[in-house]
Amino acid sequence: MPPMLRWIQPAALAAVLAAIAVVAAGPAAASKVTNVRSTVTIKSGEGAEFTGKVTSAQKRCRSGRKVKLIIEPYSGAKDKVVGSARTDSAGRWEVSGSFMAGIYHAEVTSSYLHTPTETFHCQIDISPSGRF
């Protein structure tokens, strides 16, 4: 092997190992995890649109959250997701479609937000069921 290639290979290997170490240390560096309570509500379910809101003391836990709209069948069968949406910057969400009358609830999924010094765990929540 030419002398230059012998030098490049160990250097490339060292660079790859250093990159892996930095990526692995990233989550450990921000080891403080703050659990943040979230609340999801359904404000209306009139006609062909459901709307609601996700609230949280941590503003970052309101925006971009996934909300699932779920119907609870009268027959006692398993609940069914009939739509989903992402919240806007104020935590508002809406799901449009063709919905039959029934009992519905909304669920906001859990998510993690990372900052250089802290990780926020935006917790899951399920709204009270309502007849729409």
Please describe what this structure looks like.
With 132 residues, this protein is α+β, with helices and mostly antiparallel strands. The chain folds into 2 domains: 1-30; 33-131, Sandwich (Immunoglobulin-like), CATH 2.60.40. The protein has one helix spanning 3-29; strands spanning 33-36, 38-44, 49-56, 66-72, 80-86, 92-96, 103-108, 111-114, 119-122, 125-126, 130-131. Strands 4, 5, 7, 10 and 11 form a 5-stranded antiparallel β-sheet that branches. Strands 1-9-8 form a 3-stranded mixed β-sheet, with no helix packed on it. A hairpin with a 4-residue loop joins strand 8 and strand 9 (119-122). Residues 4-8 and 12-30 have low confidence and may be disordered.
Summarize the entry for a quick read:
This protein is α+β, with helices and mostly antiparallel strands. It is built from one helix and eleven strands; from the N terminus they run αβββββββββββ.
